[in-house]
Design goal:
Helix content is about 25%, strand content about 25%. By secondary structure, it is α+β, with helices and mostly antiparallel strands. The radius of gyration is 21 Å and the shape is elongated. Its main location: endoplasmic reticulum.
Length: about 220
Amino acid sequence: MAIFSVYVVNKAGGLIYQLDHYAPRADTEKTFSFPLDLVLRPHDERVVVAFGQRDGIRVGHAVLAINGAEVNGRFTADGKDVLEFLGNPANYPVSIRFGRHRLSSNEKLMLASMFHSLFAIGSQLSPEVGSSGIEMLETDTFKLHCFQTLTGIKFVVLADPRQAGIDSLLRKIYEIYSDFALKNPFYSLEMPIRCELFDQNLKLALEAAEKAGPFGPGS
């Protein structure tokens, strides 16, 4: 079982805390000769595989590194265009690492705001008055769980679909937020959470949830 990440979103839809707890490694590194037997295309400021899945490299995977040096979007570490570099026979053989694109800070902010809007839409679509918004979204590889407090703060956990005890974990995170953020005299409401004790206790709670599942009755 695994818990992938935690997000805290304020009542205005702003991301005030985010923790990547566990990220499955699906990177694949191969050495290629010219011509490259994969079709690459630019997409959202990065270079991705458009055709030619093989050896763990899948359509949609991004170019993460070339010859051991991290790629910066569509450019190599020394500022060269990735597609131009890989189109030059003189640069072969070349080692390329492919994998899932890592979300940038700006992308995480945008996605938190989008989920805030979806949560509100879910509430408005309900045929019953006073319904909550989205509490869980499920895919084949993860579940998104959300708990909104009476003050509008949202705690969001992304976890393995088989992970137990997430409802209790969400309430435990709320307790940690109350104890180590709200009671911190230097913390301002609705602002980013930067508190070492909050970080430490949150990580302990995530580790306990992964090992033992539920925190108590009603999980």
